[in-house]
Each structure stands twice: as C-alpha cells, then as structure tokens.
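Sequence in, structure out.
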Amino acid sequence: MSAASLLSAAGLPPGLWDLTMSRICTRHPSIRMGRLGFTHSARNSAQAALARAPSAPFSLPPAKTGEAKGTFGRRTARRPGRPGPLTPRSGAPVAGSIAEIERRVKELKEAADGEVLAMENNFVFTEADLLTMYEDLLAHPQETPAPEVPSVVEQQAHLEEDVAILRWIEQHLLRLNAVGVPLDTPFIAKLRSQPVPVPDTPIIDETLDVHRRVLQLANARLDRLDVVQRLQPSSSTSAPSPVPIILFSLKDYEALTRTCVRKGDWDAAESVLHLMKRSGLPIPEESLTTVLQRYTEAADVHGAEQCLTNFLTGPPTEPQRHLHIKCHLRATPRRRVPETALAVLHSYESQGHPAPMKTYTSTIAALYSTNLSIARAQAWDLFSHMRYVAHPTPDVVLYTAMIRACASPVSPARGAEPERALDLWTEMTVEQRLTPTVDSYNAVILACAKSGRRSYVNEGFRIAKEMLDAHRDAYGRSAYLPNRRTLCALLEGAKRIGDLARARWILADMVRSDAGEKEGVNEEIMMHVFHTYTSYVPPFTRNLAVLVSKQESKDTSSASRTHVVNVPDPSKGVPPPIDRSARFTRVPPQTSNEVMEEVQALFQRMLEDTGKDLGTSTRDGDMFSGAKKFQHVEFTVRLANSYLSVYYQHSSLEVSQALFWKVFDDVGVAPDARSYLEALERCSRSKRGRERTIGLQFAERLWSEWQALEDARRSAGQPLDARMVERAHVAFMRVLVLNGQLQRALDHIKAFVGRYPPSHLIDRSPKANFRSTRTVLVGARPLVRLTSPNEVPDDGVPPLLMFSDLEILHHRLVAASMKSGIGYIKYISKAYEWALRGRRDAAMRARPAPNAHSISTI
C-alpha cells in the first residue's frame, strides 16, 4: 500500500502527500520525484483518493518560457537562484491547487487544536466526581450475607401454620378411620371372616400433642391398608410391586417433621420417616438430614448409622456424609486420635463419594485439638492426601487452618514454621487469588511471631501494617479491622524478642479505645504483656551506676547529677511498696526497678477494676484514668504465673518468695504444676551467699507441694507431663547441689529412678494402622504424606534423666571424691540413654497392628 493510500485510509486530505513531496523537491533540487519513484505511484494514489473523495482538480502550473525538456522527456534543471513555483514566499500563498492544499492543512490543524481543547475541558472533574469514581474502584468486596434468621414472630407464625395443617390431617384421618366406613358392609364382613385380624380403630389420647395423635392415626390407617393389600388376590405368581399409599401430601409430611423438631421430640421425627417409608414415598433429603443432625449433636454414632441404613436408598449426599463423619469426631474423646472418623472418611473416598471440603477441615481441626504429635502429623498428611484424591484447591478456611497449624508444629522442639506459613500464604493470595480474611491474617502473623526470630517477627508486623493500609476504601476505612486475636499475635512476637516498646504501645492503644468485653483488654492480653516485661532487658546496667547517698544527691546540681538507683531493702522479705505516682511515659523503663514499678501498677489497677482490691485507688492522674479498662480481666493461674515471672527475672528471690504465697490468695486461685515448676527453677538459679539459703528453704516447701500434686495426678490416672516432671526433679536436685547437700541430691536421684526406672522406656504402644508407610494406591489412610516417621516425636516417653541433667552433680561428686556416687551417675545416665535408643529402634521397625475398629460403610 502506498503512502498516499495510508494517508487516505487515516482520514487525512489526499493532497497532503503531494504538498509534502513538492516542498521536499523544491528545497532540495538534487532530489527529483522521478528518481525517488514517487511520480507515478503518488500520482495514482492521489487520483484514487480523489476518486473516493471529490475535491478541486489538481494540476501543476504550466512551464515558463525558457524551460526545455530533456532527451527522455524529463524536465531540465532550473537555473540556480531562481525560485520555483513551489518555493515558499513571505507573502500570501500562490493561487491555485497549492493554495487549496495549504488551506486544508490549516483547517486540519485548527480542528485538531479544537478537539484537544475540548478534551482538556472535558477531563476537568470536580471533587464529587472523583469521590464517586474512587468509591467504585476502591469499594470493599461484599461479604456473603449470612442466612437470615426468622424473627420470633415469624417462627411463631410458621409454628401456628404447621399446627393448623396437622389439625386438618387429624380430622381427615379420623373421617377415614371411622366416619366414612359402615360396620356392616359385605367387604368388612369378608375381612372379619378371614384369619387375618383387622385392626380396630385406635383410641386416641387427647392429652397428647397433635403430632403424636397424627402419628397414631396414620399408623393405624396403614395397618388396615396392609391387611387389605395382603388379602387381595394376585393375578401373577411374581410378587406385586408396592404401590405408594398416599395418606397426605409431601408438604404435610414436612410440616409434621418440622413440628416434631420444634417440640424437641426426636423419636417422633424419626417415626415420621418410618411412616413415609411404609407409605412407599421417597424420603425428602431435608427431613433425613434434620434427624441425622440430631444424632450428630448427641454424638450417637449407632443411631446415626442406623438412620442412614434404614432410610437411605442411594448414596448419601454431601451434607449427610459430613454429618456422619462429624458424629464420629464428636464421639471421640479429646485426647484420642479419631480413628473411626478417619476410617469412614477414607471409606467414602474408596466408594467414589469423597466428603466435602468442610469435612476435611473439621477432621484436621479435630486432629490438632488433641495436642498429640502423631495427630498433628496425620493432619498434615490428610491435607496433602485431600489435594491428591478429593479437592485439589483448598478454600480460604482450610488454608487459614493450615497456616495456623504452622504456629504449632508437629515437633515442639522444632518451633514454629514461618517459612511454610508464608509459602501457603503466597499460594493462597497470589497463585490461587483467594481473598484472605481477618483470621487468615491473624494466622500468618501468629506463625511468624511464634518463630521467635526477629526477622520473622518484623515480617509479622509488616503483614499487620499491610492488612490495615493496603485495603482502604475511598474514605480511608480498612477492609480488615484488627481484633483481639491480631493483637495477641503481635504481642506473641513482641514478648519473644523482648520488644517492650511495641507491647506498651499496643496496650496503650487498647486502653484508649472504647472496646467492650469482646475486644477489650482481657486475661490473655495481660499475660502476653507480663511475659514481655519478663523477656525485656533494661538498657541500664546497675553495676555501672554510681551509688550516692541522698544527702550527696541533694547537694549536686541538676546539670551534673548522677543517676541514683533506689534499691529495695532485701532484708525485709516483702515486695517494695507500689509507687502510686508512677507514670507510663513514652520511654520504656530503663532499669529493673522501673520495670517492677510499672508491673506493680498494672497488677494493682487490675485488682481495683475487678473489685478484688478496695484500697486506695491508683486511677487518679495516670494514663488509665477514666472508665474501668481492666474490668473484663479474669484472674487465672496462668495470669498469676506470668505476673510472678517478672519478679523471677527482675527482682530478688526473697521478694519473689514472699509474693508467691500472697498473689494466689489475692486473686483467689490455686497454684498448678507450672507454678511450682517455675518457682523451683528460679531457686535453682540462686546466687552465691544468702540467696542460696533462702532458695533452699523456699524449694523444700515447694517440693512438698509438688510431690502431693504429682502423687494425686498419678492416682487419678492423669499423670503430669513427663517433661515437666523431669524439669521439676532436676531443679530440686540443683538446689540441693548448690547448697552442698550432695548425698541428699544423690538420694533424690535414686528415688526418681525407683519411681521411673529405665525399663519403663521399653514398653510402647503399637503402631497405628493409619500411620502405615507401605506404598499403596488405595487404602484407608493417606496416600500422600508430608511427614516421615522420624519427624514424629513420641509423646509417650516416660520421665528420664540424661547426663546433661546430672552434669552439675557429677562435677561436685568428682570434686568431693565420692567414687560410688560418680559410678552410679554414669550407670544411670547410660541406662536411660540405651533404653531410649532401644525404644527408637523398636519404633522404626514396628509394623501397624490390625485395625480393631469395624466401620460400617454406607
């Protein structure tokens, strides 16, 4: 296509090409139109353009006198210095076609300038127009509306409507049973002559509810019709196909079922299903699901399976499969793996009817709620198995559950798994493009926070900032508002890295807000805050401070005054008095003394707001003045333990001892095993001098309480955690060693060995069938696993002692030249070590035991 044709197709004037080329040839005499090859083609294109768009005729001006043509008809060159006909002049354009072309070009430029000006005027928006536009662009996605719950008036109206239907059915059945049939008809006489007795009309108890009376009348009517059907002669030898007996419509059956459910009469609701089955009518899915849901709520596995067996004619629907498996989950004790539920789940898979995704989500949540390592490993294996056989793409709820599971890994020794959590987060939000929820953000923040690594904790705070800032609408409102779980996750990260500044900022922000009981300060928030004070390292070192007397500090000018440290007198053995003039400044506390002042003020304020302390109020003039911001804090054992942990870290052992017995009386709770364990471990870290004597006295009293608790739990069949038992015994042994009582420490180890001998480590539970690692393509267990057998810790290992636990005792025995004790320590540590190694080898060689559960498949 020629250039002229392109210009014509673009809507430009056809003479624009000629004008351009003529000016080029005029300004550059050495360039000829014929040499460039434009003479013929340009002319033809121009003629074609003129044919499509008629305009004034175009022709070159006639040659002037003196011009001659060459041999081959080409125009000879002009004399230099003489302007040609196309040479621009300073005056008006020459008359003719060239002037016409220049006029059109000028009009084209004016039209273009006018269009640009019009467009500029049209693109001027007002503030209201911009706000309207950004409202649509930045609008938050609409959440799925929750199903409307009918009001009390509507429910009462529906109940009255159903009762009216049942009363009509009752009158109809009474007419059929008694009124319309004479007693002396030939047919009745024939029936009476038969050996099959004819049921009499039932006597209805008027005191019963209307749905019970209807069921009695309907069953009596069916009994009569069954007798009549058996006495009818059969025309063929084959058994006749049952004919549905229509007593009343399907809508009436549904009204009868709803009435039974509202009355809470589940036996009557199941009787309605029996009535429909006798009538030969198909049982509605909604009615069967309603009865099955009742068995699920009651955790009645036998009743649920009997209901499915009796009334199910085809494969169960997704809601019915979900309720069937959920019933097994609810019937399983909390501290046991739901093996029957897993067997039913895999049974549905083998039948080609996998359970819905919410069933897998409920099963994984149930596995994680057991707090067993083997159950947590099975949860991850079930997640990978589901993506292989049933649902390749999880939904947001299941992604959120697995991201939260990264915060509580299979092995507690490995810590959280922030890398896996972030991978799942990227897969959900980037690859699958699923819209996260507030719970999703809370899960990934918690996984990063529990890692305890500063880089991932900072990543958790970055995700929280993205949650608030990256999803705002035109008015600046965030689509994801943080709740209490979000703040608890952030505090979890702050306490693990000792970031007290962030923890104080979060607490101050919650106190300033007007949040109620659901989102206000509660026991978990304050527990995390106290733990942050515990892990916080004050920047001021007491040993580097210059201690001066009060008289010297008064004489020193304020410009050259040295930092004075107020140290409480440890001889008093009581906590220092609360400084009611303490203020929570923006700068975190710089010394351990300032840390204790803030913690005491917080705890005292909680006692006042909850009504446990009616003394002098500390509310006047502090940052928490106003309403009772801590009134929803519930004093529990773990809150008291977290408060005591601050004293264990930043105060003396004597002060901690006095506070231990006082704080539990103040808050009205009893200490638990962790309370005694943390206090014993604090005594095992006592310093040289008087503190070790105090620690021994404190530890002996704690140990008597611990032994009573340990024996009581063993007698009740609920022993304490084995690892806690180890830590408690080792802590008390260290206290004895630090005070030079080596023989008593050695006797304590012998008593531990007598109670928990190494031979107990050999006994172990058999390997479960669902943990089999045999390679198969079909089976009642996950086919694709994410955890290997050596990654799953053994939760059933009894208490034991390793050489690292007994090392301090061994060193002191060597220093004291107690050879018998040295040999005993070596023997015991090796005995536990070899018993533990034998248990590990047996676990790796173990084969799964036969499944003792008989699962009925539907």
